[in-house]
Amino acid sequence: MREGSIVSPPGKVACALLCLLFITLLSLASQRAQAQGQRASGGRTAEDTTAAGSITGRVVGEDGRPMGDVSVVIHGMYSGFASRVSVTDSAGRFQFKELPPGLYGLRVASPSFIELPDENRTPWEPRYLKPGDTAQITMVKGGVITGTVLNAQGEPVVGAFVRPVRVRDAQGRRIFTEGLAGIMPRITDDRGIYRIYGLQPGSYLLVVGGSNPYFFGNVSYGDVPTYYPSSTRDTAAEVQVRAGEEAAGVDIRYRNERGHTISGTISGVSDNNGRSGISVALVRAVTGLIEGQTYAIDVNGRHVFYISGLPDGEYEITAQAVFEKGDAVSSAPRSVSVRGSDVTGIQLELAPLSGITGRITLEPLKAQEPCVQINPQVAMQQTLITARREEQDKGRLQPSIFSAGGDAPDEQGEFVIRNLSDGLFRVSIRPPGEDWYVRAASFPAVTPPAAVQAGTSGAKAAAAPAPPPGTIILKRGERASGINITVAQGAASLRGRVAAQSEGAALPANLRVYLIPAERERADDILRYAETGVSGDGSFTLTGLAPGRYMAVLRPFQPQTDILRPPRMLAWDEEGRKALRREAEETNNVLELKPCQQLRDYSLGYTAK
Amino acid sequence: MRSLARALLLLPVLSLLYTHAPAQAPQRTGTGAISGHVSVADKPAQGIIVIAVPGEQGPDRREVARAVTDYEGNYSLTGLPAGRFNVVPIAPTMVGPANSSYGGSGRFIILGDGETVEKIDFSLTQAGVITGRVTDASGKPVIEERLQLVPVENSIYIGSGSYFNPYMYQTDDRGVFRLYGIPPGRYTLSVGVSPEESAVTAGNLRRSYYPRTFYPGETDSKKAGVIEVTEGGESKDINIKLGRPSQSFAVSGRVVDAEGRAVPNLLIGYGGYDPQQKIVTAYSYGQHRTNARGEFRLETVRPGRFAVFVWSESENYSDPVAFEVTDADVTGLELKLKRGATITGVIQIEGITGKSVAAKLSKIAIGASVQTGNLGPPDNRQATIEPDGSFRITGLPSGRVHLFMYDFQIQKDIRVLRLERDGVAQPNGIEVKPGEQVTNVRVVFEYGTGSILGQVRFENGAPPEGARIFVSVYKAGEDENSHPGTYAQPDARGRFVIEGLVAGDYQVIVRAQLPLTDWNGTLVTGRQNVTVSNGAVTETTVVLDLKERYTP
Question: What is the ipTM of this complex?
Answer without folding.
Answer: 0.81
